[in-house]
Amino acid sequence: MENRAIVGSVSLTLTNIHRTFPGPVIAVDGVDLHIPAGQFLALLGPSGCGKSTLLRIIAGLDKPTTGTIQTNIPPPNQTPPLRYPEEADQPRKNPNSNGRSSIAYVFQDAHLLPWRNILRNVALPLELQGIDTAQRITAARDAIAQVGLSDFASHYPAQLSGGMRMRVSLARALVTQPNLLLLDEPFAALDEITRTQLDLQLRQLWQSRNMTVIFVTHSITEAAFLAERAIVFTRRPARIVIDHQIDLPKDRATNIRGEPNFARQTRILLEALEKGGA
Amino acid sequence: MKRFLNIILPPIVVFILVTILLEAIVRIFGIAPYLLPPPSQVFRAMIDRRDDLAQSLLSTTEAALTGFALSAVIGILIALLLSTSRLIQRAFYPYTVFFQTVPIVAVAPLMVIWFGFGLKSVAISALLASVFPVIANTLAGLLSTEPALRDLFKLYGASRTAILLKLKLPSALPNIITGLRIAAGLSVIGAIVGEFVAGVLERGAGLGITVLVARKNGKTADIFAAILVASFLGMMMLAFINLAGYFLLRRWHASEQDKD
Asked: Is A111–B149 a contact, with Cβ atoms under 8 angstroms apart?
C-alpha cells in the first residue's frame, strides 16, 4: 500500500495523568502509559471507573488536572499529516485545521446528525475541516463501503438499525483516515451478534491500515479479541492493575473465542479485574 | 387524498354536530338572539356582511402575519444572542419575560402614541403578544444540543459559525417550530386585541373593529361571525406552520415520524 508510507500513525506517552472533578471526585489517579505507534490497545475496567475520562483526555476533549501527554501529532496550527497520496503535491486546502484532524473518536452511541443522510453524516468531519465537496463525497463513499453500507448512503439515521448506525459512526471516524482512532465502549449497547460482527470488522480495518487504536470497554472477551495489549484499571479512581500483552495470533477469526489460549487470556484479564475491586 | 380526508373529516363532523346542537338548544329553550344567536342567524350574518368580513379578515391577516413574521425573526435573533453566553443569558433573559407578562391592552395605547392608529400599532401588538414563546423555545433548543455532538465538532476544529449553522440551529429546529406554532395563534389574538385599542374605526379595518362596531349596534350575530372568521384565520396559520414543520422534520424527527 502506497499511502502507508505517507500516513504516520501516532505514538503517545502519558506521564502521571491525574483528573479530579469538582466534588471532589478523583476519576484518574496517576496513569503512566506508553502506547507505541500502530498498536491496538484496549482499556478495560468496570463501568464508570474513569477510563472514558482518560480517553477524553487523550482526545484533547478534556484536560488532565496534572500530568502530560507527549505525542507525535503535530501541535495546533501546523500542517496536519498528508492523508491522500494524490494531495502530496498540492497545498492543503485546510485553513481551519487545528492539527487534531488525525484523531477520530467514536462515542458510546452513534451520535449521528438526524437531519443529514448517511453520506452527509460521514462527510461531516471533512466538511468541518474545509475539504472541498467532490473530494469529501469520494472519501465518504469509500468509508461507507468499508463498513458495508453502500446501499444506504442516502438513507437517514432514523431509518437504520442500531448496529447500522454504529457502523455509520465508525465510517464517520474513518473518513479522515485517522492516525489515532479512539473508541469509547462503541458497541456496548448492541446485541451480542452485531457486536461480534463489528468487533471483527474493526479488527480487520485496523489490520488494513496503519493506525493506532485505543478501545475502551468493560467486556473482557471484546478486549481479548480486539487488542494486542490490554490495560486493566481499578474501580474509580482509575489506576492500572496490569498491563497485559495479549498472546494471540495477528489474524483472528470470530471462533478464536472458543480456543483454550483465548480462555487463558480472558482469565488473566478477569483475575486482574477482580484484583482491581470490580 | 385519503389521508387528507382522514385528517379533515373528524373536525368537520364535530363542527356540524355542534352547530345542529346549538341551533336546537337555542330554539327549544327560546334563548333571546341578542344573548345567543342561533347558528343559522350567524351564517346569515356572515353571508350578508361578507364584503365587510372579507375586508376585515384581510386587514387582520396582514397585521397578524406582519406581527408573526417579526416575532419569528426577532424571537430567533434574541434567542441566538442569549445563547452565546451564560452571562448574557442571566442578564437579559428575565427581561424577555416582560413580553410574556405585559398586558397588550395596557401597552397598546403607547403604540397609538408612538405609531398612531392603524396597521403599524396593531402589528406591533401582535408581535408583543407572540414573541416570547419563540424566544423561550428557540433558546431551549439551542441550549440542549447533545454534548457528544459538540465534542465531535470541536474535535474536527469546527468554527463557532459552523457549530451554530450545522449543529445548534438544526438541533433547535423542532423547538423553533413548536415556538412558532404557539406564536401563530397568539399573533391573531394580539392583532385583534390591538385593533380594539389601536385600530382605525372604519368598515373592514379588522375583525376586532367588526366586533367593536357589532357590540355597539347590539348585533350579537355579527360578533359571532367575526369570531368564527378570526378562529378560521388562526387555524389557517397553525395549519401552515404544521405543514412547514412536517416537511422540514419528517425525515428525522420523532414528532413527525409516525405520520408517514
From this structure: yes
- CB-CB neighbours of A163 under 10 Å: 18
Q: Rounded to whole angstroms, how far apart are CA atoms B45 and B40?
A: 9
Cis peptide before A76, with omega less than 30 degrees from 0? no
- CB of B2 within 8 Å of a chain A CB? The answer is no
For residue B112, the tally of other CB atoms under 10 A from its CB is 17
The model's confidence at residue A234, banded by pLDDT at 50, 70 and 90, is confident
For CA atoms B209, B212, B216, B218, give the dihedral sign: positive
Quick one: which of A249, A156, A246, A252 has its CA closest to A201?
A: A252
Nearest-angstrom CA–CA distance, B209 and B81 = 37
Are residues A115 and B170, on separate chains, in Cβ contact within 8 Å? yes
Q: What is the pLDDT of residue B255?
A: 66
A158·B257 Cβ contact <8 A: yes
Q: What is the pLDDT of residues A126-171, one digit of tens each?
A: 999 888 999 999 999 999 998 889 999 999 999 999 889 999 999 9
Q: Do B153 and A111 touch (CB under 8 A)?
A: no
Whether omega for the bond prior to residue A24 falls within 30 degrees of 0, making it cis, is: yes
- Predicted confidence at residue A89, as pLDDT, reads 41
Q: Under a CB-based contact definition with an 8 Å cutoff, are residues A46 and A71 in contact? A: no
Question: Which region, left, alpha or beta, applies to residue A2 given φ > 0 means left and ψ of -120 to 50 means alpha?
Answer: alpha
Cβ contacts of B232 within 8 Å, gap of 6 or more: B57
A103-106 and A12-21 as β-strands: parallel, antiparallel, unpaired? unpaired
| Torsion (CA) A95, A99, A101, A102 in degrees, nearest 10 | 140
CA distances from B198 to A13, B123, B194, B211 (A): 73, 10, 6, 14
Would you say A178 and A211 are in contact if contact means Cβ atoms under 8 Å apart?
Answer: yes
Cα nearest neighbour of B151 on chain A: A61
Query: How far is Cα A230 from Cα A224, in angstroms, rounded to an integer?
Result: 7
